[in-house]
Amino acid sequence: MAQQRRKFAENTEVAPEKSRGAINHILRIWGVSGIQWSDLYDENQVILQFVWTPDGSQTSYMAKLTLRLPTDDQLANEARHKRSGKVLDSKLERLKDRRGWREHRLLHIFLKGSFEAIENGIITAEQLFLPWLVGADGRTVAEVVGPRMGTLVTSSAEALLPAHEGES
Hints:
Elements: H1 16-30, E1 34-40, E2 45-52, E3 61-68, H2 72-78, H3 89-97, H4 101-119, H5 125-129, H6 141-145, H7 149-154
Antiparallel strand pairs: 1-2, 2-3
Helix pairs in contact: 1-4
């Protein structure tokens, strides 16, 4: 039987509020001009949006990253007793109380590593955050391109762009 891999930050002791504070600090050091957190309880999501203007640019960019939190059903499944299959109420409540802890910690680590990579010339901020850049319609690049990934891998990236007027 294959051994199950332990999830990174699974047992973190860092509360989401502390991770958010650390994320805000990193973003402020990086020079963002605005940060917004949205908690969408009914959708089991947390959204982080931030605005920055790259050095030498006249254009500001907005990035939107979405944390998907475990649903009550997923937590109930995790709280099941291994043998009986019965949901352990005390374990379920503990899991609900810690919902979002791991996800916030992962986002903190992701952003911290990302900004280190940017500062060390491994990647540009525009390249790194491209999937999460928000267009005028409120959708991210990933939301627009994602459904068309098959076209990208079977053709060229230009095939994802709308046809120019006058071209067939």
